[in-house]
Automatic annotation (TrEMBL):
Residues 15-179 form the Peptidase metallopeptidase domain. Its cofactor is Ca(2+); Zn(2+). Ca(2+) 2 binds at D69. GO terms for molecular function: metal ion binding; metallopeptidase activity. Ca(2+) 3 binds at D86, G87, D106, E109. InterPro entries: M10A_MMP, MetalloPept_cat_dom_sf, Pept_M10_metallopeptidase, Pept_M10A, Peptidase_Metallo. The active site is at E135. One of its GO terms (biological process) is proteolysis. Keywords: Calcium, Hydrolase, Metal-binding, Metalloprotease, Protease, Zinc. It comes from Forsythia ovata. This is Matrix metalloproteinase. Ca(2+) 1 binds at E109.
Length: 195
């Protein structure tokens, strides 16, 4: 009899510090100098929504970069946080866990914005939304997963778009923050251990 079971493979950062219990309304802001288009800003909004759909967390954009909980910016090369970017490919982005909450992306990447890889896209095209969903997982203290289809799986090939949370991602984040009390969809159907 084939046994269906999902072994959770998500991981937490050591110490498991996370946003203070009470803080479920988080704000995010974009580095003003980047002058990001509405399109790009709504792309990040969608990426946040995927995580807020399954947790009690809410993410609201604010114009005050200095006061926002999560600070999103595109930088090139050495940008003063001890983790310089490296041009096309290599490191694509990095996120600093709570309470720093900084989310930096490499401005030198060939970012694909609307998720369709035009056949002319350079081989080094990287889907921005996929990277954003993954990095937000890190902002929320999720480490890497060994489940291949998980957002938190530590590799993505260029030209790939992976933005839907997998079971492993949902189980991991709900372990940290609980589920979404007013989630009116059907509970994600986890494969239960069969007796
Ligand atoms: N940036 C790494 C990452 O976000 C930074 C990193 C390396 C890291 N080791 C870590 C973060 C351990 C937390 C814990 O994974 S990255 C991917 C993926 C990167 C990688 O630029 O290499 C994505 C950014 F998952 F595809 F490999 C986004 Cl989606
Ligand atoms: Zn940085
Ligand atoms: Zn990662």
């Amino acid at each position: 009899m084939s046994i269906f079971h999902t072994v959770a493979h998500y991981a937490f950062f050591p110490g498991k510090p996370r946003w203070p219990e009470s803080k479920t309304e988080l704000t995010y802001a974009f580095l003003p100098e980047n002058q990001l288009s509405k399109n790009v800003k709504s792309l990040f909004g969608r990426a946040f929504e995927r995580w807020s759909e399954v947790t009690p967390l809410t993410f609201t954009e604010t114009t005050s970069y200095s006061r926002a909980d999560l600070k999103i910016g595109f930088f090139s090369g050495d940008h003063g946080d001890g983790e310089p970017f490296d041009g096309v490919l290599g490191t694509l982005a990095h996120a600093f866990s709570p309470p720093a909450g900084r989310f930096h992306l490499d401005g030198d990447e060939n970012w694909v914005i609307d998720g369709n890889f035009l056949n002319g896209s350079p081989v080094s095209a990287v889907d921005l939304e996929s990277v954003a969903v993954h990095e937000i997982g890190h902002l929320l203290r999720l480490g890497h997963s060994s489940v291949e289809n998980a957002i938190m799986y530590p590799t993505i090939s260029s030209g790939t778009r992976k933005v839907e949370l997998a079971n492993d991602d949902v189980i991991g984040i709900q372990e940290l923050y609980g589920s979404n009390p007013n989630y009116n969809g059907s509970e994600p159907s986890f494969i239960k251990y069969s007796k």
